[in-house]
Amino acid sequence: MVDPRYEIWAKTLVRYSVDVQPGQTVAISGGMAAEPLLRAIYREVLVRGGFPVPLPTLPGLAADLLRNGTDDQLRFISPLERFVREEADVAITVMAETNTRTLSQVDPARQTVFQSARSEIFQTFMRRAAEGAMTWVGTLFPTDAYAQDAGMATSDYADFVFQACKLDQPDPVAAWQEVHERQQRLIDWLAGKQQLHLTGPDVDLTLSIAGRTWINADGRRNFPDGEIFTGPVEESVNGTVRFSFPVVVAGREVQDVRLRFEAGKVVEASAAQNEAFLLQQLDTDPGARYLGEFAFGTNFGITEFTKNILFDEKIGGTVHMAVGAGYPQTGSRNQSAVHWDLICDLRQGGQVDVDGEPFLRNGAFVV
């Protein structure tokens, strides 16, 4: 029997997150494990008068390509990839990995070839989204693999996902609108401010936000959501930061990342686990050593670390930063084939001052 919550999920994504309009082409991408949700989204797009384009993916194909493909095959961009990035009016992506470690033994250099070849269409996608030429949202289906990473039974993890997405609320859209209002108060306070100073255990970092725009992430891009983010002035970042939570990227778990910035650029980097992979990602292209995003996590309903960035970066009281590509709508000019989010927990002894005024103390907003 299909979980009725999938219908609520699909309606919230299609009607609220991307607001599908009649006549729009809607790319619906996702793993086969998410079939019940993908079908519900497809039906809902039809109800809204859109033209759904289903793009389901089989597990393990990316690993097959990266292991067995030639460099030319890694660089080949399929018409479907171009359609999603360059032509679709709406893109809905449902992550549904059945094994989150399928890429763990792939040569990182091959992953760099694959990523670099997609830099141009990635920048096109970012530009189109910033201009309003397309809308997009990404969500995650609760598979066994994600549950195992989180250390939960699959049924418990599914409940966690539904709760984080506010799908357990009588009116999920109204719940996300309340999130928007709370976050907007923080953004209004930050308007016109110049500089952030982060301090705490293994953290002493300054960066400029002068002239940059804060974005209210309220379920219209990530689902679940709960953050406010901007693009730091590229050459302004100075100091050191330790990212206390591990991050899983391309099948590899990178732990205890420490970065030192000078004039915006990462000049020293280390990790307790998979350091070589970290360094290779930072050397993908010149923009990979600069910050494209800085964000405050505001979702205090997500309290458990799950080793999945979609949820973990939203944890209230944390901040996250992305090396690599920035979002043009924030004012960021940084371009890269990489966009890699890293999380810093400020809930125990950390603080953020904005133009010398307290903004965050021990994970709590104080404005």
Low-confidence stretches: none
What structural category do the secondary elements indicate?
A: alpha+beta
Rg for CA atoms:
20 Å
Strand coverage percent: 25-35%
Number of strands: 20
Helix-residue proportion: 25-40%
Shape: globular
Oligomer: single chain
Order of the strands making up the biggest sheet: 14-13-10-6-5-18-19-20
Summed up, the domain count is 2
Largest sheet data: 8 strands, antiparallel
Number of helices: 12
Average pLDDT number:
95
For the termini, the CA-CA separation is 47 Å
Note the topology.
Layout (H helix, E strand, L loop, with lengths): L4 H13 L7 E7 L3 H13 L3 E7 L3 H8 L2 H5 L3 H9 L2 E6 L12 H10 L1 H13 L3 E6 L3 H7 L3 H11 L7 H19 L4 E6 L2 E6 L6 E3 L4 E2 L3 E4 L7 E6 L3 E3 L2 E3 L2 E6 L2 E6 L4 H8 L8 E7 L11 H4 L5 E7 L14 E7 L5 E4 L2 E5 L2 E2 L2
Parallel strand pairs: 1-2, 1-3, 3-4, 4-8
Antiparallel strand pairs: 5-6, 5-18, 6-10, 7-9, 9-15, 10-13, 11-12, 13-14, 15-16, 16-17, 18-19, 19-20
Helix pairs in contact: 1-2, 5-7, 8-9
List keywords for this structure.
367 residues, alpha+beta, Thermophilic metalloprotease-like, 2 domains, five-stranded parallel β-sheet, 12 helices
Describe the structure.
The protein has 367 residues and is of the alpha+beta class. It has two domains: 5-141, Thermophilic metalloprotease-like; 172-365, no CATH class. Helix content is 33%, strand content 28%. It has twelve helices and 20 strands. The chain has helices at 5-17, 35-47, 61-68, 71-75, 79-87, 108-117, 119-131, 144-150, 154-164, 172-190, 275-282, 309-312, and strands at 25-31, 51-57, 90-95, 135-140, 195-200, 203-208, 215-217, 222-223, 227-230, 238-243, 247-249, 252-254, 257-262, 265-270, 291-297, 318-324, 339-345, 351-354, 357-361, 364-365. It has an eight-stranded antiparallel sheet, with helices on one face. The protein has a five-stranded parallel sheet with strand order 2-1-3-4-8, with helices on both faces. A hairpin with a 2-residue loop joins β13 (257-262) and β14 (265-270). The model has no long low-confidence stretch (mean pLDDT 95).
